[in-house]
Specification:
5-stranded antiparallel sheet, Flavocytochrome C3, Chain A, domain 1, alpha+beta, globular, 5-stranded parallel sheet
């Protein structure tokens, strides 16, 4: 099957407007007869469900959490991008488009990214109307801050709780439609298979996680909004329950999986504390606005700090290496995430890591506290303020911007980040790869859509900070509600999709068979045993850097681990009850297949691009080295075992941006 991105003709600035002018619509009376399933209720799924229901469609929304408010979108901290140019610093739709494509190392589809930049401004208006409490400046206007990879301030934020506030906005919109009866909400339900009839997505098989009951749900279209697959590494910033299952199920039914090797390592996370840790904690990238990243210049000082003989505050400015400012003077601490992460790893690998494990660098706010303090002293007409007064005034400003993040850090690390620098280290965060979709956000299965982090479309090989929330809400509020109508216009006379068909019978039989296996297999090892082993293989061989030898080893090791899993996995409890180990077993089984495809994709991509850093392909000064022959999306077709997956290529053509070496110097 040839890949057709369905990108409309014409100038890029007119594509989306002209496209909307000519697509088919479903009139309001007919929308009442059409059902849509939305799997996942984070920012993408929640906004899509609310908007589709508002338009008049009958929506069934599914989440495995006890409430949509628990979706992992709630953990997003720093902000959401939009090209409003409120700061008057030169921002525009084109600049947001350019920064996103460049930030993704020229590995994303131009038309989708321009549309994202174009609708970004609408998102802010929508969310303000919903009551999202964005930060405001002294005059009452919406405030902005900077994020990595850009030279303007375009990030709207609500302290360090932006994801939570945006999710509550989408959730309130959902609740209104639930009350109207337009959304049927299925909490504590997990999608376990997609049902296709005559080649089209027509429903899902779901498990009630509380009772264990297997349910059939039909619809005229299915939307997957289930987030990313960062937990394939076991340790990540994702919620413990985040998984790839919904996306992997549709992949096995014919949806191509695109760019699985594109994973983002976030540079500002709290370092790992021990072998028994099950999750990593993100510290918002917004902290890099005011925090300066450094390590000691001298190895003697590193040793003294590790042994507790010195504190970081004992080191003078001359004894500190602000390595991002040194290497990337134009962007400094605000280089993109992939660049900042690799730079931290390079310093730590060279022996300059500052914690006991040697895997940490400092994020220091002393300079900003002093700067803000002196500024406030002038505002308050305080002449010759004392050092203590400057600190007091500066701390108040930093606290107003990042207070909840500092509080979270102190609770976890038991150190006061106002008085001593934070310790941070890169960790697995977001996944740019995902289900391949066309311009309509439809997968290679007719009637099956993927939105938000579940698809691949907008971020290329590296996502800029504050763009995840932008894409999720853009897809859900302003893109999918238009494009899905074009497809559903052919279904106005179809009528209800029955669930008593051979296709539903077969899908349910497969799901039950797998559950029966897990419950009855008398293995000797827990699900977490396999997940941790997979995570170690992934981090060691497919983590911040990769090479051909390591990737071949990973493919072999994951294949062997998967074979052991199906022999030795042990799942306690039964299937007719709440059984989190059973749910976890299914998710880890899918991760074991995805992990091998991930490594296979990374092996065939013989270049470095964004978050995918092949050691064989780097510039003399250690930067990523792209190769023109890999200017394509790798879309994998399922053929049984991951080793048998077939590669399809979507060539990426750049007509509006010059492809050149990405530089932040």
């Amino acid at each position: 099957m040839a890949l057709d991105s369905k990108v409309p003709k014409g100038p890029i600035k007119d594509k989306w407007t002209d496209y909307k002018n000519h697509i088919n619509l479903v009139n309001p009376a007919n929308k009442r007869h059409i059902d849509v399933i939305v799997v996942g209720t984070g920012l993408a799924g929640g906004s899509a469900a609310a908007t589709l229901a508002e338009l008049g469609y009958n929506v069934k929304a599914f989440c495995y959490q006890d409430s949509p408010r628990r979706a992992h979108s709630i953990a997003a901290q720093g902000g959401i991008n939009a090209a409003k140019n409120y700061q008057g610093d030169g921002d525009s739709t084109y600049r947001l488009f350019y920064d996103t494509v460049k930030g993704g190392d020229y590995r994303s589809r131009e038309a989708n990214v321009y549309r994202l930049a174009e609708v970004s401004t609408n998102i802010i208006d929508q969310c303000v109307a919903q009551g999202v409490p964005f930060a405001r400046d002294y005059g009452g206007l919406l405030d902005n801050r900077s994020f990595g990879g850009v030279l303007v301030s375009r990030t709207f934020y609500a302290k360090g709780q932006t994801g939570q506030q945006l999710l509550l906005g989408a959730y309130s919109a959902m609740n209104r439609q639930i009350a109207r009866g337009k959304i049927q909400m299925y909490n504590r339900h997990e999608m376990l298979d997609l049902v296709k009839i005559d080649g089209k997505a027509r429903g899902i098989i779901a498990r009630n996680l509380v009772t264990g009951e297997i349910e059939r749900h039909s619809a005229h279209a299915v939307v997957i909004a289930s987030g990313g697959y960062g937990n394939v590494y076991f340790l990540s910033t994702n919620a413990m329950g985040s998984n790839v299952t919904a996306a992997w199920k549709i992949h096995k039914k014919g949806a191509y999986f695109a760019n699985p090797c594109y994973t983002q390592i976030h540079p500002t996370c709290i370092p790992r504390s021990g072998e028994y840790q099950s999750k990593l904690t993100l510290m918002s990238e917004s902290l890099r606005n005011d925090g300066r990243i450094w390590v000691p210049k001298n190895l003697e000082d590193v040793k003294a700090i590790r042994e507790g003989r010195k504190k970081p505050t004992d080191l003078s400015e001359d004894e500190r290496d602000y390595y991002l400012e040194r290497r990337y003077p134009a962007f400094g601490n605000l280089v993109p995430r992939d660049v900042a992460s690799r730079a931290a790893k390079e310093r730590c690998d060279a022996g300059y890591g500052v914690n006991a494990t040697g895997e940490a660098v400092y994020l220091d706010f002393a300079s900003s506290i002093e700067r803000y303090g002196r500024e406030q002293a002038k505002i308050h007409n305080i002449t010759n303020p004392s050092k203590e007064k400057v600190y007091e005034l500066g701390k108040k400003i930093v606290e107003a911007k990042y207070g909840n993040l500092f509080q979270m850090y102190e609770k976890i690390v038991d150190e006061n980040p106002y008085e001593t620098p934070m310790m941070i280290y890169p960790a697995v965060h977001y996944t740019m790869g995902g289900i391949w979709v066309d311009y309509n956000l439809m997968t290679t299965i007719p009637g099956c859509y993927a939105i938000g982090e579940a698809n691949f479309s907008d971020h290329g090989a590296n996502r800029l900070g504050a763009s995840a929330l932008m894409q999720g809400l853009a897809d859900g509020y302003f893109v999918l509600p238009y494009t899905i109508g074009d497809y559903l216009s052919d279904d106005i006379r179809t009528g209800k999709i029955p669930t008593d068909t051979p296709e539903f019978d077969e899908a349910e039989k497969e799901v039950k068979s797998r559950i029966d296996f897990f419950i009855n297999n008398k293995g000797s090892k827990s699900v977490d045993y396999f997940h941790k082993k997979l995570g170690k293989i992934m981090w060691d061989e497919c983590g911040m850097s990769r090479n051909a030898e390591g990737l071949k080893q990973a493919i072999n090791d994951i294949s062997e681990l998967r074979a052991e899993f199906w022999k030795e996995v042990s799942v306690p409890g039964g299937d007719k009850e709440f059984n989190e180990e059973l749910a976890k077993a299914g998710r880890v089984a899918d991760f074991l297949e995805l992990g091998e495809l991930f490594a296979k994709d990374a092996l065939q991509r013989e270049e470095s691009a964004g978050g995918h850093f092949r050691e064989e392909y780097q510039t003399p000064d250690g930067e990523a080295l792209r190769r023109k022959e890999f200017q394509y999306v790798s879309a994998w077709e399922y053929k049984g075992e991951p080793k048998d997956a077939v590669l399809h290529k979507e060539d990426l053509v750049y007509e509006n941006i010059e492809v050149k070496e990405r530089s932040y110097k």
